[in-house]
C-alpha cells in the first residue's frame, strides 16, 4: 500500500543469510563455489543491521501499528558461526519488535541445541527433506537423511515448531507422497514444497526443470498427498499449497511472488537481494542512505511490487493480476528476465 507517495508493505520478512559456510555439499545448492569464502559481517555490524531494520519498521508502523515483521536467519549452515546462539538470544530479546525463525540443515541440532531453541521460542525451525533416504542422500550426502530425522525428533521432543521443506525436481517428485507420510508420522507442523531452480550447482543438471506438464502432475501429487494428510484419523500439522502456480491444482488461493515487496534477502557481506533465489543485487544494507531508502526507491524493487507488472504472455489469463506470472526467480534463472512468464505454467493462453 502507498503512503506519502512511497510503498509500505502489509507485512515484511527479512531472510538473513548470516554465512555461506556449510558442512554439506548439496548438488542443488544455489551458492556458487566461491561464495563460501565471502566476507561475513562482524558482531557490531549485525547489531547495526538490526537497528536499521527496527528503524524502518518504526517508520512504517506510524501508519500501520500492527504491521507484522519477521527475520528468518539461515546460511549456509548458520550454526557454523560461533556467535549464532548469542545472536538468537539477542533477537529473542527483541521479540516485541519482530519475530524470528531459523532455517538450517539439522546437522547441529542435538538435544542441547533443541532445548536452547525451545527456551528462545522461534516461530519455527525449518529443515529440508528431499525424498526417501536414498534419494535425499543422493542430493545432500551419505547419511544426511538420518541426521535430519534425528534433528526433527529432537526439535519435536523439545516442543519446537518444526517445518520441513521439499525442493522438487523430476528426480524426486515421485517421493513427495512418501515424505508427506514421513512428516505426518513425526508430527511435523508444516510441510511445503517448491520447485528447484537451475542456479549454482543445479545449473549443471541435465534434468533440473519440470516441463509444464510435469509441473501440473507434481502439483496434483501434492494435492492428493494433502488430502491424505487431512483424512488421517488424528489430523495434525499442515501441508501447504501456497507457492507459485500451486493454486492451479485446485486448492488454495492464487499466490504471487513477494520478492521486493514483503520480502528482502540479506547476504553475509551485507548485499541486499529481492530474494535469495533472485540474485539481482539492489544495494548494501549499511548504505549511508539507509535500508528504508533502498527498499522504497530502488527501481527493481519498485517494478517487482508494481501491481500492473504482469508478463505480456499472461495478459489474457484470468489470474494475471493475482498471480503476476508465477515464479519470477524461475523465469529469471531460465530466461534471464524475472518479468517473463513462469516456464512451468501449463495454461494455454494463445486463444
| Unreliable spans | none
Order of helices and strands: EEEHEHEHEHHEHEHEEEEHHHH
Please work out how many helical segments DSSP would assign: 11
**What class would the helix/strand composition place it in?**
alpha/beta
The outline comes out as: globular
Strand percentage lies at: 5-15%
Gyration radius, rounded = 20 Å
Look at the structure and give the CATH class of the largest domain.
Alpha Beta
- The mean pLDDT is 93
Tally of individual domains: 2
Major beta-sheet overview = 10 strands, mixed
Summary of the model, kept short:
With 351 residues, the protein is an alpha/beta fold.
Question: In words, what does this structure look like?
Answer:
By secondary structure, this protein is α/β, with parallel strands linked by helices. The protein folds into 2 domains: 2-309, Aldolase class I (TIM Barrel), CATH 3.20.20; 310-351, no CATH class. It contains 11 helices and 12 strands. Strands 9-8-7-6-5-4-3-10-11-12 form a 10-stranded mixed sheet. A two-stranded antiparallel ribbon has the order 1-2. Helix 6 (176-185) packs parallel to helix 7 (212-231).
